[in-house]
Amino acid sequence: MAVAVSILPEQQLAVLNDAYRKAVARKRLRAIGATALFLAALTVAAIGAEVNLKTFITYFGNFVSYFDRIFTLEDHTRVWSNFGEWFWGWQKWLKLLGETILISYVGTLTGAVLAFALNFFAAENTSPAPWLRFVVRRALEFARTVPGIVFALIFVIAFGLGPMAGVLAIAIHSTGALGKLFSEIVENADMKPVEGVRSTGASWISCMRFAVLPQVTAGYASYALLRFEINVREASVMGFVGAGGIGQELVVAIRKFYYSDVSAILVTIIVTVFLIDIGTGWLRARLFGKDARA
Amino acid sequence: MNQLPAPNTEQLRTRYPDVFNRPVSARLATSAMILGALGILIFGLVDLDFSASRFLAGLNQLGWITMLMIPPDPGSSLPAYMVALGETLSIALLGTTIAAFFALPVSLLAARNIVPSNFFRFPVRRFLDSIRGVDTLIWALVWINVVGLGPFAGVLAIAVADFGAFGKLFSEAIEAADQKQVEGIRASGGSALHEIRFGLLPQVLPVIAGQVLYFIESNTRSATIIGIVGAGGIGLQLAEQIRVLEWQKVSFLILMILVAVAAIDWISSKLRFAIIGRRAVA
Q: B127 and B34 in one domain?
């Protein structure tokens, strides 16, 4: 099947070609400019961060062999040849791992409840007063910008060493993160039910309870579950500053070069994080699969 | 005004049995879930040694600490803090860029539409998942063992941790790309590499650039904390000042972090809009 492709006359073509070349050249120039700027920023950053390629190349072998070392037992055999020896401290570690999960559970739940209490004041469409919205938003921003572990450092001094500081740090950080997400869900909610409820003479609280809440609970629960996943990771390092959980054991193992312990604890953490990811994924699908499809 | 007819409750009941008579299992499920959640919460509170007296004493302490933090005052160490902040920003920028650079080729291997074979894709995915399962702080500790204390260890820690995250995100972006353009390249006689270069990358790059910018933003936060384990930057100063209870300096450092993060947020959201907005217009 032959299709005739019409070719423009030479003159017209030249104009079009010219315009095309010009457009492409401008785009390229801009791309080159941006790249140059970016490379300059990188160079400055490399000097600022004391990047030393020589050290890196000299020691990169160490990094690779580090993994060799952490997977070797003291009798120079591979760790998986002797599971009993590799996971010699499993009872202690499992207990600490349970503590880690509990820290993130209690922290996430407390954070979610606080975020729930605050988010209606932070959302554009439901906040009763602009000044209140401003205050609540700034407070949430503060809670989520300061990293959880910084809160933990301060709380360890105020509340003493132990998991309590970790729980409170995670709770505050989760309040900030979830408060923002929750209020965004509320801002996306349909306002017609609210008008309907308000037209019956209901108070602000009734409006929230009967018009907004039924629309947003599924979204809340979904975000809270996601946050729980993130918090398990976060709780696994809270022990670095003395705020409970398995991090304490890990930091001791890394600093004192108990190589096979490092890999054993890391493997337990990774497996736990996997399991929790899968578990919450399953739970989310079970709870909201129907709504998501509808 | 029209009078509404009185609602016929009986008729409504027969017409919508689900609304008036929810099955017992559905009603029980909700309360059972709430009870279960509360049960674990209480168990957790007991197991983690929560006590009202400790909590109140701690709050009291915290109140004192907050009082001591005001007003924020860097003392004479402002120049050192500015250098540390610059170090933190450098760590974030450099770490994220290195991660993105190495993650792009690997993410191609993890994308379903590039490597259809499950057999090859599965190990790559699991490998990326394992890297992501380990927190940045842990990577920082490992790198400190390898290249010594200092910001360079921080750069490498962020690079490795983000490598896992980017690998996953990029491969998802690639999987979401439109296949028609790739088919077009193939139809005009392009090789597999041409397909990736001209069919896939133009679609994927803006998405990737947006994600990288977002990560630079969030890594500014991560970079502030890896200093706590000794990997340079402002976190090192912060942890030291907290340990020696110099609360005015602590609050000043926290303020510096907040301002820096806000500034980076602002810049990167402008840039992201510029990159993605231009695409939308073109």
A: no
